[in-house]
Amino acid sequence: MSQSPTTRPADDMKHTDVLIIGAGISGISSAFHLQKHSRKTSFEILEQRDGIGGTWDLFKYPGVRSDSDMYTLGFSFRPWKQAKAIADAPAIMDYLKGAVSESKIDQLIRFGKKVVEAKWSSPDSKWFVTIEDKATGEREIQSCKFIHSCAGYYNYDHGYQPDFPGVDSFKGALVHPQFWPEDLNYEGKKVVVIGSGATAVTLVPAMAQTATQVTMLQRSPTYIVARPAEDGFANFTRKFLPSMMAYGLTRWKNVLMGRFFFWMCRKYPDAIKKRLLDELPAQLPEGFDIEKHLTPKYNPWDQRVCLAPDGDFFTSIRNGKADIVTDHIERFTEDGIVLKSGETLAADIVVSATGLDLNFLGNIDVSVDGEAVEPGNLLNYKGMMYSGIPNLVASFGYTNASWTLRCDLTSRYLTRMVNYMDRKGLGRAMPTPDMADIEFEPLLDFSSGYITRKSAELPKQGSVKPWVMYQNYIADIFLVKFGALRDNGLKFTK
Predict the structure, then answer these.
(1) pTM of the complete model beyond 0.85
(2) Between the CA of residue 431 and those of 391, 442, 482, what are the distances in Å?
(3) Nearest 5°: phi and psi at 57?
(4) How far apart are CA 448 and CA 302, in angstroms?
(5) What's the angle, vertex CA 434, arms to CA 431 and CA 436, rounded to 5?
(6) Which of 416, 451, 380 shows the shortest CA–CA distance to 38?
(7) What is the pLDDT of residue 1?
(8) Whose CA, among 50, 73, 281, 353, lies 20 to 30 Å from 222?
(9) CB 53 within 8 A of CB 22
């Protein structure tokens, strides 16, 4: 009979000023900024996995890569020096390991430690955090003044998997990209990839290199654009300028270009849609049905635009190794999938690239003075704190730009707040909105399925600042990095 997890007694309790949850990009950024800008602050990182990297260590599917350029996905404090701007996961992991090693952040990470519960006590002005050892199941309680949640936005334990009719009858391999089998051999096999998001657009050309045929099965089209994998401007400037200067120039060039493109998409959606679609005929076989397979019903950036570095996705279609089928699944059979149209797709392997399962703060049970926190009732503050929860900051990246841009700002804000509270002798910082003046809106103005499925369970944003969730890095610099810490939304107390 298994025993209940043991809990370390209270008299052996450890305390730290800031507890960082997660050793991915956000956690590394937080540690660096605390180390540099808040040197008197004690902190450590808890990581439930056995290594750093978060997403980039978890996903192992063929071709896994960034869909943002590394000059904005990279850290502000460490230049990206490789030729490819659109990098694969191993290159990204090398970059992250270098950042951690150089700054000695690796000495401050406790691996195999999962945070399962966080309780705020106002009389103590502390968080009491229950931590489970993944190997032994033993639990300990640790206190801290601040929590910085860098656990990401999706469930690491499982992805989103629709309940496909007849799936149990399928005799081939059904895999989800989040849990790619190391021994999966797709050479010479017929593969069906369900989905049309960034993961599917990455998988198709990668698997098509050795598979007999790869079919992307989608319910509806996605915007897919071909862009060079290398940034010519970056590679040129790096030859003549110091690495940080060249990196900074490229970073801002890409920030401004990305922001301009997003603005154009919202301001002139029809014109941008035409421009994107006009690029496609030259990259596809003659007679390819662009209207059916590659013309979305929504406007650009209502969902994320998918990137095909060097046009690899279109190349795989042009050479006959891959194709697209736009239809709905009727049912699985022993050897494939029957579609609503009556067409049958034969398959040895089916990849369910059907998205992520979003969660809040890594599914940690959070309570404030004995009251359980209900995420759907919370109001976002400046994109990183939540109404009624004291001394907790969470990193959540942009939907229309690189994740790291936002998490770097969040980490810097945390150091400003910690230092300010230390100088003033303050114990608590809690977002406290005047509900009478605020209308609740969805946290993310995005129509992607993985977001809409969980929208009701996520915190909300407000109609006025500082409760608005801006998707604008430039605006956030002034609001988060340079804006006043004291405003009518954040209440500081002793």
Answers:
(1) yes
(2) 9, 18, 18
(3) -95, -25
(4) 8
(5) 150
(6) 416
(7) 33
(8) 73
(9) no
Position 11, amino acid: D
Highest CATH level, class, for 10-157+357-493: alpha beta
Provide the CA 321 distance to its chain's centre, in angstroms: 30
Rounded CA separation 79/332 (Å) = 48
Residue 311 tokens, joined: 């046009």
Which two three-digit tokens encode residue 256?
A: 């401004």
Q: Is the dihedral of CA 264, 265, 270, 273 positive or negative?
A: positive
Rounded CA separation 177/191 (Å):
13
CA pair distance 22, 115, nearest whole angstrom: 10
- The CATH number that domain 167-352 falls under is 3.50.50.60
Long-range contacts of 169-174 (CB under 8 A, 24+ apart): 169/332, 169/333, 169/334, 170/332, 170/333, 170/334, 170/335, 170/336, 170/347, 170/350, 171/334, 171/335, 172/335, 172/336, 172/347, 172/348, 172/349, 172/350, 173/348, 173/349, 173/350, 174/349, 174/350, 174/352
Instruction: Parse the chain into domains and list their residue ranges.
Output: 10-157+357-493, 167-352
Q: How confident is the model over 166-222, as pLDDT tens digits?
A: 999 999 999 999 999 999 999 999 999 999 999 999 999 999 999 999 999 999 999
pLDDT tens figures, 8-40? 555 678 999 999 999 999 999 999 999 999 999
